[in-house]
Amino acid sequence: MRTAFFLILFVLLSACRHNVSVTEQGSAPDSVPDLYPLYPGCETYYSPEMQRWCFKRKFSAALEQALAKAEWRDSLLLSVRGDTLWLDLQVDSTGYVRLRRMQGIDSVSGTFFISRFNRLLKELPPLSPAVKHGVPVSVRFRVPVVKSK
User: Is 6 among the domain residues?
Assistant: First the structure.
């Protein structure tokens, strides 16, 4: 009887898996994706760390270029409190990038610039979404915009 109890307990415990659950919307909260979003050209790197490094480098450069061309750039930088504006971005499970919120700017100006930033983000090359357990998921990340003196 005791052996049967331990055998059943072992079978039940071994059936439990400690995987991160992916929600229906395709986001993986509080987890690290297996593959980070890929910016075009970053898929040539094989290691996830190098792909992440490439994504950060290329995405930041493209955002900096697009922002430099934006006619509202000077107004944005005048609205920033301090020297850094933080952009909370999200890459959804289809690779679409959107600005969720801005930190370091007052709320009225932030609302005004969020729509402009989202239009600017649509002009960037499409991304491949992050992947967790073989399923495309959304991920969030922060990007600093530092005012130069």
Answer: no
